[in-house]
């Protein structure tokens, strides 16, 4: 079986689950042999963008939805997003320090403490044009870090996932 464009992968301690742009999920216990795990209870439509596993739950984001699964097969739509604007499409997600953070188009950030109810705490980030999606997020050493896919090579940082700065990226190495 061929798998189309994959967009995210997570591991729960016993199985890998991968998400795809076609909206399907795939699973593997070994990482070598994969099978379609898309359950009949899946309520998501459109391309899946990013996938994480935390707090004994898989969480996936797609354009305008968030869904969770405890087994990687049956998914429940959990979307309850406030301040979701026209053109806001979720692209990335991370969990750290008790908070979920999702990145979107137009450099928008959405946060949640439970993965169920999401808000948009920052309407516009400083020091850059307001275009480009927050296409990747990570959490480590007490800091959330995001990358924006615009022509500026922009990096975003936040200690709490709520207030963000956009430090200049120095690409000149000496």
Descriptive report:
- This protein has 174 residues and is an all-beta fold.
- It is 0% helix and 44% strand.
- It contains no helices and 15 strands.
- Strand 7 (65-69) and strand 8 (76-77) form a beta hairpin.
- The chain starts with 5 loop residues before the first strand and ends in a 16-residue tail after the last strand.
- The model has no long low-confidence stretch (mean pLDDT 83).
Strand fraction equals 35-45%
Shape: globular
Counting DSSP H or I runs of 4 or more residues, the number of helices is 0
Mean pLDDT: 83
**Unreliable stretches covering 5 or more consecutive residues:** none
Helix and strand composition category: mainly beta
- Count of β-strands: 15
Assembly context of the chains:
single chain
- Classify the helix fraction into a percent range: under 10%
Largest sheet report: 4 strands, antiparallel
Question: Gap between N and C termini, in Å?
Answer: 47 Å
Strand order of the largest sheet: 1-2-3-4
Radius of gyration: 16 Å
N-to-C order of helices and strands = EEEEEEEEEEEEEEE
